[in-house]
Design goal:
This protein has 269 residues and is mostly helical. The chain has helices spanning 2-16, 18-28, 34-68, 70-93, 119-150, 152-181, 184-194, 197-209, 215-244, 249-267. The protein contains ten helices and no strands.
Length: 269
């Protein structure tokens, strides 16, 4: 059990630190590869949606119906699923749009003329942006950790999907922080550290949830994880993918992500 916990924590760390990769891309390339990001974000959404609805939701329902009976178990699964959606929606609701890390930013923005804004306002914007990405990454860390604990193969797939998602997120965080401070190193550092919210989320899940992980608790948490990932995919990943590119690339990525996830679940079962 200890080995599986360390493995799950390692996956969340890998996914979270991908924000640092986004920062490096922002500061060491001159142009944004929008086609790649569009396909990659679509792919990530496809993986998350498919595994959430086909694998995670079903396992949550099975655990709850076995423990509480068919009717009560199914209703609680539904409540957990939409509860997860409500949880992540409330997080989004209370983050100002200007500092939301899922607002699309481009590498080219780093080389734009620095806006003439009051220094205190710029610093406040940088702090809020770093906080926003940390808050967003926290539930993603819980989702990755809990999935990996239950099924390492599913956990790997989700960690890769979240990591892909975090690369453009790192760009989105670095650009406003750079505008806030004028310091590339500080922008990279804060973006890199904000990604650590994912392993922190995993630690919280381990410390608070694992000691009480009965079949009922597992089913509720897993249903919530499915809801969180579907909401993130539909509200953040797909819209961002479509804004990066005007063609159907994001949809091709979505279908490819679903297909890869479907085949991996069969081959690794």
């Amino acid at each position: 059990m200890e080995g599986s916990i360390l493995f799950a924590l390692g996956l969340t760390l890998f996914a979270g630190l991908a924000t640092g990769v986004g920062s490096l891309i922002a500061f060491f390339t001159s142009r944004t590869n929008t086609k790649f990001l569009s396909i990659a974000l679509g792919f990530s959404a496809g993986v998350m949606i498919y595994v959430s609805l086909v694998e995670i939701f079903v396992k949550a329902k099975d655990a709850l119906t076995n423990a509480l009976g068919t009717t009560n178990g199914y209703w609680l699964t539904i409540a957990g699923f939409f509860g997860g959606m409500l949880f992540i929606a409330l997080i989004d609701k209370f983050i100002p749009k200007s500092t939301n890390p899922h607002e699309v930013k481009l590498v080219e923005d780093v080389n734009a003329v620095k806006p003439q804004v009051d220094e205190n306002h710029l610093m406040k914007m940088g702090v809020f942006t770093a906080l926003a990405i940390g808050i967003h990454n926290f539930p993603e860390g819980i989702a990755t950790f809990m999935s990996a604990i239950n099924d390492p193969n599913v956990g790997i797939a989700i960690a890769i999907a979240v990591a892909i998602h975090n690369i453009p997120e790192g760009i989105a965080v670095s650009v406003p922080i750079f505008f806030a401070t004028g310091n590339r190193r500080k922008a990279f550092k804060l973006s890199f550290l904000s990604g650590l919210a994912e392993p922190v989320g995993a630690l919280v899940a381990y410390l608070l949830l694992m000691p009480f992980l009965t079949d009922v608790m597992f089913g509720i948490v897993f249903a919530g994880v499915a809801g969180i990932m579907v909401f993130i995919s539909l509200d953040e990943l797909l819209p961002a993918a479509q804004r990066y590119d005007e063609t159907h690339l994001s949809m091709y990525g979505l279908v490819a992500g679903m297909a890869v996830m479907a085949m991996s679940l069969v081959l690794l079962a």
